[in-house]
């Protein structure tokens, strides 16, 4: 019997894993335990040890992290560095101490060098400094890959990592000021619709992004835990052809919410951010050539419906 603990299991990605298990990915020889910060603060070594002692996991999916939007990152780079370094150090040290067979940790595409060539691939993680806005968070995440290689070199541990692109889905953080693009937009459309007002989006809407639906990511993380044989990270992303413009995303959110596209305004005086950050999923496609991603229209529809139906409880 395998016993899998999912740290940070109550967030967007943890709920995606839970959904994938509920929709056909569960196995009889696996027990899954989803943890939140209420089960213990993983930035504290003794609390982390107590969690491992209690659950005796054979496998770990490590999602817990101090996360936040651009402005919180810019203001608290030191906190993002220290807290995430502590969480990662404690989780991997305890995984080693308690003889965990495999750990899959979750990184992020923002860890890649700021100045790079496109498409980005797994070999580029350490090839230059990350963007200055969130260098604390990015360096802490990059170090997970260093830890994984060091644990493997010294102890033969099977600790690895995955790098998802932008994630969206039910149970996201829908905060407008501190959240990500899709949940922020969904919340803005909700408010504009309720107030009978126009929806103003910052920027021209031309930048391109790759979005992965949380349940697809959940399915791929379960695969990574069971099958992915490497220590080196793997990018978990939709194909390059599935890259969409922010304008398209805004229109899809509006359509899903029953909000007229004519009432959407793009404020082109506001900055656009990076034009694109295309990541290659060539490595993933080598392992899983036939994996089918949820089409973005369907994923957005499900996310919009979830937010409208769960408005009171949703994180916002
Ligand atoms: N969202 C994205 O677009 C995105 C993109 C790339 C990578 N990622 C990565 O994916 C992972 C999961 O992200 P998410 O979006 O699912 O985040 P989330 O929804 O904010 O969830 C974060 C989880 O971590 C837990 N946590 C935070 N601090 C903790 C601590 N000190 N001790 C124990 N647990 C703690 C939270 O518990 P509580 O709920 O109890 O606070 C929650 O379960 C993170 O590693 C993140 O860096 C996310």
From TrEMBL:
GO BP annotations of the record are:
'de novo' GDP-L-fucose biosynthetic process
Q: Would you tell me the protein name for this molecule?
A: GDP-L-fucose synthase
User: Mind listing the UniProt keywords for this protein, alphabetically?
Assistant: Isomerase, NADP, Oxidoreductase
Q: Name one Pfam family in it.
A: Epimerase
What's the EC number here? 1.1.1.271
| Keyword Zinc set for record | no
What top-level class of enzyme does the UniProt entry assign? oxidoreductase
Supply one GO molecular-function term.
GDP-L-fucose synthase activity
Tell me the ranges covered by the NAD-dependent epimerase/dehydratase domain, including all copies.
Answer: 4-230
Under the heading HAMAP family, the entry gives: GDP_fucose_synth
Q: Which family does it belong to?
A: Belongs to the NAD(P)-dependent epimerase/dehydratase family. Fucose synthase subfamily.
Q: In which pathway does it act?
A: Nucleotide-sugar biosynthesis; GDP-L-fucose biosynthesis via de novo pathway; GDP-L-fucose from GDP-alpha-D-mannose: step 2/2
Q: Does the keyword Methyltransferase apply?
A: no
């Amino acid at each position: 019997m395998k016993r899998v603990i999912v740290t940070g299991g109550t967030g967007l990605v943890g709920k995606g894993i839970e959904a994938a298990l509920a929709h056909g990915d569960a196995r009889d020889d696996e027990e899954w335990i989803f943890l939140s910060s209420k089960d213990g603060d993983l930035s504290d070594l003794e609390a982390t040890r107590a969690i491992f002692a209690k659950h005796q996991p054979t496998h770990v999916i490590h999602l817990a992290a101090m996360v936040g939007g651009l402005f919180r990152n810019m203001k608290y780079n030191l906190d993002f560095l220290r807290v995430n370094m502590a969480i990662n150090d404690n989780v991997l040290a305890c995984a080693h101490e308690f003889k965990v067979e495999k750990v899959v940790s979750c990184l992020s595409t923002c860890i890649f060098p700021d100045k790079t060539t496109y498409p980005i691939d797994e070999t580029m993680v350490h090839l230059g400094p990350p963007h200055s806005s969130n260098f604390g968070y990015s360096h802490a995440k990059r170090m997970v890959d260093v830890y994984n290689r060091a644990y493997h070199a010294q102890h033969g541990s099977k600790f690895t990592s995955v790098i998802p692109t932008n994630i969206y889905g039910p149970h996201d953080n829908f905060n407008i000021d501190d959240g990500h693009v899709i949940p922020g937009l969904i919340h803005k459309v909700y408010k504009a619709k309720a107030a009978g007002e126009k929806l103003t989006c910052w920027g021209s809407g031309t930048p391109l992004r790759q979005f992965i639906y949380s349940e697809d990511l959940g399915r791929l993380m379960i695969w990574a835990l069971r099958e992915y044989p490497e220590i080196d990270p793997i990018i978990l992303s939709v194909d390059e052809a599935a890259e969409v413009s922010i304008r398209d995303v805004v229109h899809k959110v509006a359509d899903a919410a029953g909000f007229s596209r004519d009432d959407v305004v793009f404020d082109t005086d506001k900055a656009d951010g990076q034009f694109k950050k295309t990541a290659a999923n060539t490595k993933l496609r080598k392992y899983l050539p036939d994996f089918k991603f949820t089409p973005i229209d369907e994923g957005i529809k499900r996310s919009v419906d979830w937010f409208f139906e769960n408005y009171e409880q949703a994180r916002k």
